[in-house]
Amino acid sequence: MSADDERVVAGLDPGRTIAVTGADIRTVAAVQVKGPITWSGPADETDLALMAHQVDRFLEAVHEVDRNPVDQLRRMLPIEVVSVEFEVVETFDQSAGPEAGARVTSG
Amino acid sequence: MSGGRLTLRDLDRCFGGAIPMVMATASADGTPNVTYLSRAHKVDDERIAISNQFMSKTSRNLAANPRASVLLMDPITHDEYRISLVYERTERRGHVFERLRTDIDVLASLTGMQDVFRLRAADIFRVVDIRELPPNPTGSYVPPPPPRDPVGDLAAMAEISARIARAGDVDVIVDVALDALDQLLGYSHSILLLVDEEGRTLYSIGARGFASDSVGAEVALGEGLVGMAAARCLPMRAGHLGQMTKYSNSMRSGYEGSVHAGREVSLPVLNGAQSRLAVPAVTAGELVGVLVVDSVDPVAFGPSDEHLLSIVASQLAAAIEHERALESDDGPTRPSSPAPPRSQGPPGAGPAGPELVFRFFPVDGSVFLGPDYVIKGVAGRILWSLLRHHASDGRVDFTNKELRLDPTLEMPGFKDNLESRLILLKRRLDEHEAPVKIGKTGRGRFRLHVAGTLRLETTDP
């Protein structure tokens, strides 16, 4: 995740709870996962390769759906990144609508 | 920017709803909650408002911990801003609430769900900090377009006013205004709709820049973005329609099975349209119609476009109503000629051109030429009446006032909009290159041109 905001990075201590929300670009269906951080630190080559793959898929999807040029979209990517591992304890349906926030799984 | 410090004024484009924002709150024990929201609204230079529809967890968090953080993105430059907020209050009525309610309604109207989505409250937050996140240097910077030139726009408005003032009838007024919007202000895709006699439906009377049928499309008042602009007599604006529709569809899916969506609107569609602005045309306190502009640019229209088009729409409304008043005050009450000229002989006089088979459905006044739908409603009944007269005695010249006396047209006694219906009929026939046309011969007079021999059939349900 982005390390450009020092306040966020400062809060990534093991044991603290993190929440991560992601959305499907094509449907805007969204999911939020929460749980305690188990480790955070510098991203290694494996992390960066995985991130690069995911970023490419994300940008391609945005371009496909909204026709924004990929080279312009890259402006919003983080410059510095940090690797975070956490245990997913709770999952919520975060799609807009009356069921937003409904728990999907527990434990 | 004021003195290098970012303010909400620097972030205007971020409040257009083009890109969903991200909002983070935390519970009393520090557990974060992150959710997407369609849009934030600037209340003043220090406050923003966020619609509270489904944010139950966010609301609970704010009750325990009033601090929040939102991430906004500029839809053109893709610059990102992180805003730190403190929750101040919740409003359930008033100006801000109404602004947000309209925004929700616009979003809902994109998928016909305006009767279903409901704004519960508007949460007001005070801004305590704005930070621009550093843009990634590997991305390309696109500068925002320059703002409209106010001096040039004023000159254009003066010219448009002059052109509308010189126009002698509704037909010309519509053409002049739509052409001027394109030529002088750059709105190359526009539609003008007028309110029907009963004030329940809008019908398109003219358009520019659309490939498909553009005349005669109908929209119920209150339906969709255009219908809402009419029902509320307020400008309605939406950008990033693809994104907005996705978001609205996402909400809609949460309701499926419990409601039925409204019918689809059949207005002409601009291929790839991403922005739409609809402004009401009002004069003397009455809604006359709605002026609509479309664009493929996802962030095409802003407040200045609302202002410009509102002025043009008001002038259009005043000019159209003036012509209608003139038209209903003069002209003969009987056919203009006791022995009207004939374009062809009466039935039995022999064929003149190809046979033209028209079918009429009294149930809704719809008229078909062969298998092709032509028009319906009041305009359809007018066409059928003219065709019947022509088929029975070869008449070609007619007057508005005799139409008003024709009981088969079911015209309302007050504000019948006959002139507008005739123009709609004329344009519809022209658009379809039909072998039947009507042309104006003077104020309140017109001529029917028939290139063939009529065969008329009535189909009862």
Task: List strands and helices in order, with pairings.
The complex is a heterodimer of chains A (107) and B (461).
Chain A: H1 6-10, E1 17-23, E2 30-42, H2 45-66, H3 70-73, E3 82-86, E4 90-93, E5 102-106
Antiparallel strand pairs in A: 1-2, 2-3, 2-4, 4-5
Chain B: E1 21-26, E2 32-37, E3 40-42, E4 47-52, H1 56-64, E5 67-73, E6 80-91, H2 95-109, E7 121-132, H3 150-166, H4 170-185, E8 190-195, E9 201-208, E10 218-220, H5 224-232, E11 236-238, H6 241-253, E12 275-283, E13 286-295, H7 303-329, E14 355-361, E15 366-369, E16 372-375, H8 377-393, E17 397-399, H9 400-404, H10 418-431, E18 436-442, E19 445-450, E20 453-458
Parallel strand pairs in B: 14-20
Antiparallel strand pairs in B: 1-2, 1-5, 3-4, 4-7, 5-6, 6-7, 8-9, 8-13, 9-10, 11-12, 12-13, 14-15, 15-16, 17-19, 18-19
Helix pairs in contact in B: 3-4, 3-7, 4-7, 8-10
Please explain how this structure is put together:
The complex is a heterodimer of chains A (107) and B (461). Chain A is of the alpha+beta class and 107 residues long. Chain A has one domain. Chain A has helices at residues 6-10, 45-66, 70-73, and strands at 17-23, 30-42, 82-86, 90-93, 102-106. In chain A, a hairpin with a 6-residue loop joins β1 (17-23) and β2 (30-42). The longest helix of chain A has 22 residues, at 45-66. Chain A is flat. In chain B, β5 and β6 (80-91) form a beta hairpin. The longest helix of chain B is centred in the last third of the chain and has 27 residues, at 303-329. Chain B is an alpha+beta fold and 461 residues long. In chain B, the strands form four sheets. Chain B has a seven-stranded antiparallel sheet with strand order 2-1-5-6-7-4-3. In chain B, strands 10-9-8-13-12-11 form a six-stranded antiparallel sheet, with helices on both faces. Classes of the chains: A alpha+beta (107), B alpha+beta (461). Chain A binds chain B through residues 2, 4-5, 16-21, 23, 26-30, 32, 34, 65-66, 68-69, 71-79, 92, 94-101, and chain B through 20, 22, 24, 30-36, 38, 53-57, 73, 77-80, 82, 131, 133-142, 240, 242-243, 246-247, 249-255, 298.
